[in-house]
C-alpha cells in the first residue's frame, strides 16, 4: 500500500492497525505472485424454526437456476425471543430501511491477471434483489482496484446513516484463497483487515448492531470429491482419479487463484469484536464452485432460503438451512461444497422481519399518566 493511501485510510478510520507494530501494511495487503514483491498473509442452541430442515427445501434435488424472480415472503409479526430460551433477546429490527448493504463484485481482472468470474453478474442481481426485499438500502461496486476497494470500504464504514440503522450487510464476490480476496488489479486483501473496519473501535455507529458479511470466494484450491454414502471404504481417492477429475472441471469455474502458500501470521484477539456473523461459501483450503451462466451454488442457495424463510426464521437457522440446501448440489465430477459460518460475539438472535416496520406506540392513557405520578 502506498504511504499516501495508508495515511488517508488511517485518517478516516484512525484506529485501524495499519501502523501497528504487529500488523504492518505489507502484512495486510500484498501483491500477487506476478510481481517480485514479498507477500505475507494472515491465516485465517438457536431458536426452532416453524419449519424444520426436512421441510425447508423447495425441491428434493435443487437445480441451478441462474437469474431468479426473487420475492421475499413478509413476516406476519415481530419475533423478539427464542422459543428455546426466552431469556435470549433479539436485536432490534424495526427501521425501514433496516440499514445499508454493500455488494462488491470483482468479475473482471485487469490484464487477465486472474480468470474472469463468468456468471458473477447473476449472483449480484439475485443478491441485490434479496437485500432490497429484506429492507436494505443496497449499493453495488464492480471491478474495484485495490485503492478503490479500500476507498469504498472506508466510506461505507464511516457513513453517518449507520446511526439510524438496525444492521448492515457486506457482500464480497471475488477470487481468493484462505484469508484473502483479490481486487481487480490482482492485489490481495486480507479479510481480517476488512472486518477490522467494522469493529466497535473503528465503527462506533454500528456498536450493538449486527454486522453480516457474506463472502463468495475460494479459500484454497482443494476440490471436495464427496463421500458415497453407500460405500463403507475409508480409503482416500487415488491421485490418478483426482487428477483426471481436476482436468475435466471447467464447466464450473473456481473462485480461486494459482499461487504458492505463504507462512501464516496469527491474528490478535480483540475485545472490540462484537455482533459479527460471517458466511463463507466454502471451508478453509477448499474451492468454491461457480457456473458460468447461473452463478454460484452458495449464493443461489442463500437467496432461495432467505427469500422463502426470513419472515419466520432466525438468521443462524437460515444459514443452517442454506448449508443443507447447498449439500444437494453436485457437478458432473461428483464434487460437493460445504459452506462455513463464523460468529464473533453474536449475543442475540437476528430476526430480519421483512415487510414489517417499527410498530406505533400506543396512545398514552390519561388515567395511566395520573397513576404514574
Q: What's the layout of helices and strands?
A:
Layout (H helix, E strand, L loop, with lengths): L2 H10 L12 H4 E2 L10 E2 L56 E7 L14 H14 L2 E7 L3 H12 L10 E6 L2 E2 L2 E3 L5 E3 H6 L14 E6 L3 E3 L16 H10 L3 E3 L9 E2 L10 E5 L4 E2 L2 E3 L3 E2 H13 L5 H12 L13 E5 L21 H7 L1
Parallel strand pairs: 2-12, 3-4, 3-5, 5-9, 9-13, 10-14
Antiparallel strand pairs: 1-8, 6-7, 7-8, 11-15, 13-17, 15-16
Describe the structure.
The protein has 373 residues and is an alpha/beta fold. The protein is built from 9 helices and 17 strands. It has helices spanning 3-12, 25-28, 120-133, 146-157, 191-196, 239-248, 297-309, 315-326, 366-372; strands at 29-30, 41-42, 99-105, 136-142, 168-173, 176-177, 180-182, 188-190, 211-216, 220-222, 252-254, 264-265, 276-280, 285-286, 289-291, 295-296, 340-344. Strands 4-3-5-9-13-17 form a 6-stranded mixed β-sheet, sandwiched between helices. Strand 7 (180-182) and strand 8 form a beta hairpin. Helix 3 runs parallel beside helix 7 (297-309). The longest helix has 14 residues, at 120-133.
